[in-house]
Design goal:
heterodimer, A: about 290 residues, alpha+beta, Uridine Diphospho-n-acetylenolpyruvylglucosamine Reductase, domain 2, Uridine Diphospho-n-acetylenolpyruvylglucosamine Reductase, domain 3, Enolase-like, domain 1, 3 domains, 5-stranded antiparallel sheet, 12 helices, globular, B: about 160 residues, Ubiquitin-like (UB roll), DNA polymerase, domain 1, 2 domains, 5-stranded mixed sheet, 5 helices
């Protein structure tokens, strides 16, 4: 199929994009187009206007600002994949990004586009959730910060209001000695994850877990942290039985049940993949497993 | 830039030739290449970025032409499969596809050639794993991919030239 008739606007500056967004009813922002363009071609989306932000170079950056990694919304997934700063500071993101689509789509697909599309199985949304990312949201004359938990309000739905543009994402790196693990199951390489799991972990001097984050993607309408399983692990020595027990707790949620996979299968995957990600993270953090 | 509610002016360089055209706002780059410029080597399969048949190089980087608007290609340099052969001589990758039987029906081939050209430009000696990683972004229903991998390895060897 082809796109429904639409009026294309090219923003050449950030302020121009904000004014276009504020002045144009029924407009959608066109970033990398790797999710929106299929939806337009299939007429699952048919806005009256498209506002192209591909020329906004100021939204394409990865930099460290006071210990926080700031990434512009138009940062291409391919740029993240090969960023030395990301590899050094956000190694879990460097691991997960290779599961996002294919080289040919990562070349154009963007961080901000994926987060605004907010597919429940999107790896970048999972990673942002795992790191408690902060979204920088701008509109004419106003800028605000939104945590990922407030940003992801539901199935493919964000907290962006009319006229607002996601301009950057801020992720705070974990200490350099942290461990991390990412596992996903997809039917084919590059497909949406049926379930994906990310884990971050640090150990104290006695080898006990003093900080841990677990997030699941693909299993519910938005990516989710699993605070009960995290609490179960705090203060524990990371032995396999403790990791197993925590992994067994992660599926106490309403699980997606669709043509890709029934709920019971996603629950099983969630437990198995969480266990694997916990073991990877514990080993990298220095646990003798 | 001339703009109306339905059309917009674009200046785009395709395979070394400059084109100035008015395009419909909603027209994809793939349809622009095929319908307006008769460059029908770029094939359109799924129109949702999955099959890879429409892959072209945009400023040297592979992209799905079905997931870009023609309007977005303004001031870009595009390479399509028509731009690979030089003065009637096949590109070494095309020749290797011929020699190794890397295609059958040929529908997916233009996109695969473009993606592999991008790989070979970046890496003169790609591993089989790297080639398969690139091919994961393409669907071929005839070949089973084995001969495509063989052709890519053969092309890389040919392009490196005889060992010193």
């Amino acid at each position: 199929m082809k796109l429904a008739p639409v009026i294309y606007h090219r923003a050449n500056a950030f302020d121009e994009a904000l004014h276009l967004l504020s002045d144009t009813p029924d407009a959608m922002v066109l970033a990398g187009g790797q999710s929106l363009m299929p939806m337009l071609n299939l007429r699952l989306a048919a806005p009256a206007h498209l506002i192209d932000i591909n020329r906004l170079a100021e939204l394409d950056h990865i930099r460290e600002e006071g210990g926080v990694i700031s990434m512009g919304a138009m940062t291409r997934q391919r740029t993240i994949e090969f960023s030395e700063l990301v590899a050094a500071k956000l190694p879990l993101l460097a691991l997960a990004i290779r599961h996002v689509g294919h080289r040919q789509t990562r070349n154009r697909g963007t961080l901000g586009g994926s987060l605004c599309n907010l597919d429940p199985a999107a790896e970048l949304a999972l990673v942002t959730c795992l790191y408690d990312g902060v979204m920088v949201v701008d509109k004419v004359g106003h800028s605000r910060c939104v945590t990922m938990s407030d940003f992801a309000i539901g199935f493919m739905s964000t907290a962006l209001a009319a006229g607002e543009l996601l301009s950057a994402v801020r992720l705070t790196p974990w200490p350099s000695n942290h461990g991390y693990g990412f596992h996903e199951f997809a039917r084919r390489k590059g497909d949406w994850a049926v379930v994906s799991v990310g884990v971050l972990m640090t150990l104290d001097a006695a080898g006990k877990i003093d900080r841990v984050a677990i997030a699941l993607g693909g299993i519910a309408s938005t990516p989710l942290r699993r605070p009960l399983a995290e609490a179960q692990l705090l203060g524990a020595t990371p032995k396999l039985d403790r990791l197993d027990a925590a992994a067994a707790m992660v599926d106490d949620i309403e699980v997606l049940d669709d043509a890709n996979a029934p709920a019971w299968y996603r629950r099983q995957l969630a437990r198995v993949l969480t266990r694997r990600a916990l073991v990877d993270a514990a080993r990298l953090a220095g646990a003798p497993l | 830039m001339s703009t109306s509610l339905s059309h917009i002016a674009v200046r785009v360089e395709i395979n070394g030739q400059l084109y100035d055209r008015e395009v419909e706002h909603r027209q994809t780059l793939a349809d622009f290449l095929r319908e307006n410029l008769s460059l029908t080597g770029t094939h359109v399969g799924c129109e949702q970025g999955v099959c890879g048949s429409c892959t072209v190089l945009v400023d040297g980087i592979s992209a799905r032409a079905c997931l870009m608007l023609a309007a977005q290609a303004d001031s870009a340099k595009i390479t399509t499969v028509e731009g690979l052969a030089c003065n009637g001589a096949l590109h070494p990758l095309q020749q290797a596809f011929w020699d190794k039987h890397g295609l059958q029906c040929g529908f997916c081939t233009p996109g695969i050639l473009i993606s592999l050209v991008e790989l070979l430009q970046a890496d003169a000696q790609p591993s089989e794993a790297q080639i398969r990683e690139v091919l994961s972004g393409h669907l071929c229903r005839c070949t089973g991919y084995q001969n495509i991998v063989a052709a890519a390895l053969e092309a890389a060897a040919q392009m490196r030239g005889p060992a010193p």
